[in-house]
Amino acid sequence: MKIAIPIDKDEGLDSKIVNHFGRCLYFLILDYDFNILDKITNDSIHHKGTMLPPEFLKSHQVTDILCHSLGPKALQRCKELRIKVYLDPLSQKASEILEKYKKNILDEADMNQTCKEHRK
Predict the structure, then answer these.
(1) What is the CATH number of the domain that holds 96?
(2) Which residues, 6 or more positions from 90, have their beta carbon under 8 angstroms from its beta carbon?
(3) Rounded to two decimals, what is the model's pTM?
């Protein structure tokens, strides 16, 4: 079981969270003891890969995503793949959203919370 956080620059837990989940350059990967396991390059379809971001993360055994926001199609695909998504648009750094996740104060995302610009 692994946690993914979208980032553009690797600064460990001080990494800033990217606003657009699927277009980040990297995903910070953590285990359930909140240890950083890896930083993986986002090789999804948005970066000339062949998989959608949820499918790409599933191929890396990701079970939970912590991010600012994502579109309805991405959230639906995450649900189909049994990846839980937790949204927090206020956290700026990976450490901040992770702390909220640890304290169990983030709710699992629903369709009403997806990016408005992607709901058309």
Answers:
(1) 3.30.420.130
(2) none
(3) 0.92
